[in-house]
Amino acid sequence: LLLSPAYIQAFNPSDSRTRDWGSYAIRRAARILPAYWLAFAAVLIVGALAATPDGVGNLRKVLIHLFVGQALFLEQYQAFSQTWSLTTEVTFYLLVPVISWWILRSSRRSTHVLRSGLRALGVVTVLGLMAQAAALAISESGHATAAAALGTSALRHAAWFAAGAAVALLVQAERFGKLTSNNVSARGCQWLLGQRRSTLLLLGLAVFAVAGTSLAGPRDLSSPTLAEAVVKELLYALFALLMLLVAVRPIRAGSALDGFASSGLNQWIGNTSYGVFLWHLLA
Prior knowledge:
By secondary structure, the protein is an all-alpha fold.
């Protein structure tokens, strides 16, 4: 819920807290870079000592990876190729201040913050789907490099980021009592947030099952049609939205789920998952 501070002020203009973007940048860097640099050092050491396809690479390639720019410059090490998604993530982190400014500016010009926010996120989703289609069209025209750069960008996956932003919007709207009005958008959001966790999980599994059918294109790395690519991107965004709604549902104190959520095992899974992501290809 990175955008929550902007949504808080959008729904509660009297909140005068200022956002400390310096601390925000330090926290985001601390979350990503130390573990990333350690894993990258291991990739370079193995590249120097073993006969890997990439070796250590030239200085340009090393510097690009040090600053997490591999998806922008289409550089990769075979044992570190999965980290292209971190470029996309860091791009989003850099855009958060701009997006927050946009949210606040839009909310001050509208009496219906929820409706205008959902409309804006709908536009972002459409732009992301258009970028998805554009990446495929550029690839089919023979411009593979440009298509790959667009294909791994935050723009192409804007629909996914919009899903997360939509959850932040709904959570803050509920928090400040903005879902009690009788308009269609408020009633729809209230209904969605009121669904049981099991219902949301089942809906998510159903969406994921559809994403595994021919509607979303080939199951391997073969090129999909334009329609299949857009359908898959939209289905993945919907799946992410449902899973996030599951995650923000309140957990009843003393329940079995509450016990697992506060358990050492669950904390270990959370602390370890990023490490698995960084090291699994090299391992």
